[in-house]
Design brief:
The chain has helices at residues 3-10, 28-34, 53-70, 123-133, 138-145, 149-163, 168-176; strands spanning 14-19, 22-26, 72-80, 86-95, 105-111. With 180 residues, the protein is α+β, with helices and mostly antiparallel strands. It folds into two domains: 3-111, Beta-Lactamase (2-Layer Sandwich), CATH 3.30.450.20; 123-176, Arc Repressor Mutant, subunit A (Orthogonal Bundle). It has a five-stranded antiparallel β-sheet with strand order 2-1-5-4-3. Helix 4 (123-133) packs across helix 6 and helix 6 (149-163) packs across helix 7 (168-176). The termini are far apart. This is PAS domain S-box-containing protein.
Protein backbone atom coordinates (compact mmCIF):
# COMPACT_ATOMS: atom_id res chain seq x y z
CA UNK A 1 0.00 0.00 0.00
CA UNK A 2 1.33 3.43 -0.95
CA UNK A 3 2.10 5.99 1.73
CA UNK A 4 -0.61 8.31 0.39
CA UNK A 5 -3.18 5.49 0.68
CA UNK A 6 -2.05 4.76 4.25
CA UNK A 7 -2.27 8.46 5.14
CA UNK A 8 -5.84 8.66 3.77
CA UNK A 9 -7.00 5.45 5.45
CA UNK A 10 -5.50 6.24 8.88
CA UNK A 11 -5.95 10.05 9.01
CA UNK A 12 -7.22 11.23 12.42
CA UNK A 13 -10.14 13.02 10.75
CA UNK A 14 -13.02 11.53 8.79
CA UNK A 15 -12.33 11.68 5.05
CA UNK A 16 -14.44 10.64 2.11
CA UNK A 17 -14.35 10.95 -1.64
CA UNK A 18 -17.65 11.88 -3.25
CA UNK A 19 -18.59 11.42 -6.88
CA UNK A 20 -21.87 13.14 -7.75
CA UNK A 21 -22.60 13.22 -3.99
CA UNK A 22 -22.18 9.45 -3.67
CA UNK A 23 -19.42 8.05 -1.46
CA UNK A 24 -16.75 6.40 -3.61
CA UNK A 25 -14.40 5.80 -0.69
CA UNK A 26 -13.83 6.71 2.95
CA UNK A 27 -11.29 6.22 5.68
CA UNK A 28 -11.46 4.45 9.04
CA UNK A 29 -12.30 7.60 11.02
CA UNK A 30 -15.22 8.41 8.72
CA UNK A 31 -16.52 4.85 9.24
CA UNK A 32 -16.12 5.19 13.02
CA UNK A 33 -17.93 8.56 13.10
CA UNK A 34 -20.89 7.30 11.07
CA UNK A 35 -20.99 3.84 12.66
CA UNK A 36 -19.72 1.09 10.41
CA UNK A 37 -16.83 -0.37 8.47
CA UNK A 38 -15.24 1.35 5.49
CA UNK A 39 -16.90 -1.09 3.06
CA UNK A 40 -20.36 -0.22 4.47
CA UNK A 41 -20.17 3.23 2.89
CA UNK A 42 -19.02 2.34 -0.62
CA UNK A 43 -21.47 3.70 -3.24
CA UNK A 44 -23.87 5.05 -0.59
CA UNK A 45 -25.52 8.40 -1.36
CA UNK A 46 -24.25 11.09 1.01
CA UNK A 47 -27.90 12.18 1.41
CA UNK A 48 -28.39 9.26 3.83
CA UNK A 49 -26.29 11.10 6.42
CA UNK A 50 -28.11 14.44 6.43
CA UNK A 51 -30.65 15.22 9.17
CA UNK A 52 -33.32 15.56 6.47
CA UNK A 53 -33.77 15.66 2.70
CA UNK A 54 -34.60 19.35 3.06
CA UNK A 55 -31.17 19.90 4.66
CA UNK A 56 -29.53 17.88 1.89
CA UNK A 57 -31.12 20.03 -0.80
CA UNK A 58 -30.62 23.41 0.91
CA UNK A 59 -27.05 22.79 2.06
CA UNK A 60 -26.26 21.28 -1.35
CA UNK A 61 -27.50 24.41 -3.13
CA UNK A 62 -25.52 26.66 -0.78
CA UNK A 63 -22.40 24.51 -1.18
CA UNK A 64 -22.68 24.45 -4.96
CA UNK A 65 -22.82 28.25 -5.08
CA UNK A 66 -19.77 28.57 -2.82
CA UNK A 67 -17.76 25.85 -4.58
CA UNK A 68 -18.38 27.51 -7.93
CA UNK A 69 -16.87 30.71 -6.51
CA UNK A 70 -13.94 29.34 -4.50
CA UNK A 71 -13.65 25.60 -5.14
CA UNK A 72 -14.28 24.93 -1.42
CA UNK A 73 -17.10 24.79 1.10
CA UNK A 74 -17.35 24.37 4.85
CA UNK A 75 -19.94 24.51 7.62
CA UNK A 76 -21.07 22.94 10.86
CA UNK A 77 -24.33 21.04 10.70
CA UNK A 78 -26.38 18.29 12.26
CA UNK A 79 -25.84 14.96 10.51
CA UNK A 80 -27.16 11.43 10.97
CA UNK A 81 -25.20 8.28 11.84
CA UNK A 82 -26.18 4.92 10.32
CA UNK A 83 -27.99 4.18 13.59
CA UNK A 84 -30.19 7.25 13.04
CA UNK A 85 -28.57 9.22 15.88
CA UNK A 86 -28.19 12.92 15.12
CA UNK A 87 -24.93 14.71 15.92
CA UNK A 88 -23.12 17.97 15.17
CA UNK A 89 -20.45 17.68 12.51
CA UNK A 90 -17.86 20.07 11.03
CA UNK A 91 -17.74 19.53 7.27
CA UNK A 92 -15.12 20.88 4.83
CA UNK A 93 -14.89 20.00 1.17
CA UNK A 94 -12.98 20.77 -1.98
CA UNK A 95 -13.99 20.02 -5.54
CA UNK A 96 -11.44 18.23 -7.70
CA UNK A 97 -13.46 19.10 -10.81
CA UNK A 98 -14.11 22.87 -10.76
CA UNK A 99 -15.95 22.74 -14.09
CA UNK A 100 -18.50 20.37 -12.49
CA UNK A 101 -18.21 20.95 -8.71
CA UNK A 102 -20.08 17.88 -7.44
CA UNK A 103 -18.61 15.43 -9.94
CA UNK A 104 -15.63 14.62 -7.69
CA UNK A 105 -14.50 16.03 -4.36
CA UNK A 106 -12.74 15.28 -1.11
CA UNK A 107 -14.50 16.01 2.17
CA UNK A 108 -13.36 16.04 5.79
CA UNK A 109 -15.77 15.50 8.67
CA UNK A 110 -15.24 15.97 12.40
CA UNK A 111 -17.62 14.70 15.08
CA UNK A 112 -18.47 17.62 17.39
CA UNK A 113 -20.93 15.69 19.58
CA UNK A 114 -18.77 15.78 22.72
CA UNK A 115 -18.52 19.58 22.62
CA UNK A 116 -22.01 20.23 21.25
CA UNK A 117 -24.91 17.96 22.15
CA UNK A 118 -27.86 17.88 19.79
CA UNK A 119 -30.94 19.73 20.98
CA UNK A 120 -34.13 18.85 19.11
CA UNK A 121 -34.66 21.70 16.65
CA UNK A 122 -37.01 22.27 13.78
CA UNK A 123 -35.33 22.60 10.36
CA UNK A 124 -36.01 26.37 10.44
CA UNK A 125 -34.55 26.71 13.97
CA UNK A 126 -31.48 24.83 12.77
CA UNK A 127 -31.07 27.24 9.84
CA UNK A 128 -31.45 30.27 12.11
CA UNK A 129 -28.97 28.76 14.60
CA UNK A 130 -26.36 28.15 11.89
CA UNK A 131 -26.70 31.65 10.44
CA UNK A 132 -26.62 33.17 13.93
CA UNK A 133 -23.31 31.39 14.55
CA UNK A 134 -21.99 32.93 11.33
CA UNK A 135 -22.56 36.32 12.95
CA UNK A 136 -25.54 37.35 10.86
CA UNK A 137 -28.07 39.80 12.27
CA UNK A 138 -31.78 38.99 12.43
CA UNK A 139 -32.37 41.24 9.42
CA UNK A 140 -29.62 39.48 7.41
CA UNK A 141 -30.99 36.06 8.38
CA UNK A 142 -34.49 37.17 7.40
CA UNK A 143 -33.26 38.26 3.99
CA UNK A 144 -31.30 35.02 3.49
CA UNK A 145 -34.23 32.79 4.51
CA UNK A 146 -36.98 35.04 3.13
CA UNK A 147 -38.49 35.59 6.59
CA UNK A 148 -39.53 38.72 8.42
CA UNK A 149 -37.21 40.20 11.04
CA UNK A 150 -39.84 39.43 13.72
CA UNK A 151 -40.11 35.77 12.69
CA UNK A 152 -36.33 35.41 12.99
CA UNK A 153 -36.50 37.01 16.44
CA UNK A 154 -39.17 34.46 17.47
CA UNK A 155 -36.93 31.60 16.31
CA UNK A 156 -34.00 33.09 18.23
CA UNK A 157 -36.17 33.40 21.36
CA UNK A 158 -37.06 29.70 21.11
CA UNK A 159 -33.38 28.85 20.63
CA UNK A 160 -32.47 30.85 23.75
CA UNK A 161 -35.07 28.90 25.71
CA UNK A 162 -34.09 25.47 24.34
CA UNK A 163 -30.41 26.04 25.08
CA UNK A 164 -30.98 27.73 28.44
CA UNK A 165 -29.18 30.88 27.31
CA UNK A 166 -29.99 34.36 28.63
CA UNK A 167 -28.57 36.38 25.74
CA UNK A 168 -27.42 35.95 22.17
CA UNK A 169 -23.69 35.75 22.99
CA UNK A 170 -24.37 32.88 25.41
CA UNK A 171 -26.49 31.13 22.77
CA UNK A 172 -23.73 31.43 20.17
CA UNK A 173 -21.21 30.05 22.69
CA UNK A 174 -23.45 27.05 23.39
CA UNK A 175 -24.14 26.47 19.70
CA UNK A 176 -20.47 26.63 18.81
CA UNK A 177 -19.35 24.43 21.71
CA UNK A 178 -17.20 27.17 23.23
CA UNK A 179 -16.65 27.00 26.99
CA UNK A 180 -18.72 29.54 28.89
Amino acid sequence: MKLSDLAFEHAPIGLCMLENRIISGCNQEFARIFGGQMADFQNVPFAHFYASMEDYEKIGARALTQIRKTGRYGDERVMRRRSGELFWCRVRGQSLTPEDPFRRGIWSLSDLSEERPVVELTPREREVAILTCRGMTSKEIGKELELSFRTVELHRARLLEKFGARKLAELVAKLSGMPL
